[in-house]
Design a protein that fits this description.
With 311 residues, the chain is an alpha/beta fold. The chain has one domain: 3-Layer(aba) Sandwich (Rossmann fold), CATH 3.40.50.970. The chain is built from 11 helices and 9 strands. Helix 2 runs parallel beside helix 3, helix 4 packs parallel to helix 11 and helix 5 packs parallel to helix 6. The two termini are 31 Å apart. The mean pLDDT is 94. Bound molecules: thiamine diphosphate. The site of thiamine diphosphate has 14 residues, from strand 6. Thiamine diphosphate (TPP) binds next to strand 6.
């Protein structure tokens, strides 16, 4: 199911409601994953983007999802759901059930739907995205490519090789840095010298900066960055300052409860909630909750995917 293009929203409050519904869907789907894990129904691990949903929603909605290409990483559920909204396909993928969006082979980190591709190898997606941008430029399709990177991933050489070639060949690609200040358990300051937000400037790539706490403002900044990439057929760098409210995956959060509690006060989902008409808010909450409950019940009732004869 493709989500309606935000271009059809002319009134800010309609856009806010649309974003709220998407952010809530992402939040509650991921909370469901954690719950299913705790119940022993979900094997392996999941990396949730709880607290960072606004980045996925603001960026994906600035793109033309009919033709643009998105590459994402290990923390991909938000990008995936903002792109296609397929809760059932994602749940089935993570739970290894029939109807899984990638046949149950990709799991949480390796998702594919339409023009969206995700991969858990840090930095490995940057050259792939750059190649896709080159292909679209050669085809003169007008499509652009976006690639999501974490601050820890900015330590990978392949990211800079990709920026270099994207600038040299003027490729239509938006590098999005979701800077949540930590890579698993390593704070940014212990890992990187200098300022990550100025990295792309050395390649002559224009940089846009916003934070995730105001999804509407972040969306506006992204629209400007996407416009530049599409019109000028050149790369751009968008730095999204954000904060992960959950652990890296599970039980591996080294940040203090005080630090987390302070940032929870600024939770982007709650900030947006305050801007939504209470009646409308309740309707959205009910609809998202029903959707997720029905999806969980449906998917848990499906058979496991059989690998018999496929090895
Ligand atoms: C090449 C590679 N090295 C190590 C890992 C293990 N790993 C998974 S996520 C992660 C941290 C990533 O941090 P960051 O890029 O800041 O993204 P975030 O998790 O904060 O979203 C690491 C080291 C990996 N997936 N790929």
């Amino acid at each position: 199911m493709m989500i309606a293009s935000p271009n059809s929203f002319t009134i800010t409050h309609q856009l806010a409601e649309h974003f709220y519904a998407q952010m809530l869907l992402i939040r509650q789907t991921e909370q469901q994953f954690l719950e299913l894990f705790a119940q022993g129904k979900l094997n392996g691990t999941v990396h949730t983007c709880i607290g960072q949903e606004s980045s996925a929603v603001a960026v994906v909605n600035a793109m033309d999802t009919q033709r643009d290409i998105i590459f994402s990483n290990h923390r991909a559920h938000g990008h995936f759901l903002a792109y296609c909204g397929d809760v059932e396909g994602l749940l089935a993928e993570v739970l290894g059930r029939e109807g899984a969006v990638c046949g149950g082979i990709g799991g949480t980190q390796h998702l594919h739907a339409g023009n969206l591709y995700t991969n858990g190898i840090q930095g490995g997606i940057a050259p792939c995205a750059t190649g896709a941008a080159l292909a679209e430029k050669m085809k003169r399709s007008g499509a652009i490519t976006t690639v999501f990177l974490g601050d820890g991933t900015m330590g990978q050489g392949a990211v800079y090789e990709s920026m270099n070639i994207a600038a040299l060949w003027q490729l239509p690609i938006l590098f999005v840095l979701e800077d949540n200040g930590i890579a698993q358990s390593t704070p940014k300051q212990q890992e990187h010298a200098g300022d990550l937000s100025t990295r792309a400037q050395t390649f002559g790539i224009q940089t846009f900066t916003a934070d995730s706490f105001d999804v509407l403002a972040l969306h506006q900044t992204t629209v400007a960055a996407v416009g530049l990439v599409r019109q000028q057929q050149c790369p751009a760098f968008l730095v999204v300052n954000c904060y992960r409210l959950g652990p890296h995956s599970k039980g591996d959060d080294t940040r203090s409860p005080e630090e987390l509690a302070a940032v929870e006060q600024r939770d982007p989902l709650r900030q947006l909630e305050l801007q939504i008409d209470p009646e409308q808010r309740q309707l959205i909450q009910q609809s998202v909750q029903q959707r997720i409950q029905a999806a969980v019940q449906d998917v848990l009732g499906r058979p496991f995917i059989s690998r018999e004869g496929k090895e």
